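chain below, 163 aa
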Amino acid sequence: MTVRIHPYVSEMNHARLTALSRQPRQSVSTIVDVALTNYFASSPDGVGGHALLRRLDTVTRQIGRLEEKDLIIGETLALFIRYFMMTTPPVPADRQEVARAAGDLRFESFLEQLGIDLQSGKRILEQVVRNLFIDETDLFTDAELDRLHQPAPTIENGEVHDA
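prediction:
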């Protein structure tokens, strides 16, 4: 059963609705009914845009994680620069031109390597982190792992009993 309604819409929406209803198998009633169905289906309380709000929440959390990673990278770089400045002795005045030229060459080499690594998808930091987190199989033989996973023996009245 359908119910007749008489809503008021802006002139702009009326023009769009009229233009869209000129297409085959499209009527003003069908378009409005589908639009209302989609609007009410997007949220349990009938307020439209619930799916959009969920997506915005997801994007907000992703941006938060990116900001956290950016902060970690910035702190890492700052710590490296501080360490480098503290451990590098000053260059004598008579050798500064040679040191500057060597620094320029090293910087050019650094930029080339950075470009190669970024294009190849190779990430040094990811490789370092993977190497830091070793597996227990890297430290123990299979027999040792079996013993490690056995329950500990119990001691009763001074006697050792297997669990």
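The mean pLDDT is 83. DSSP finds six helices and two strands in the chain.
thats it, cya
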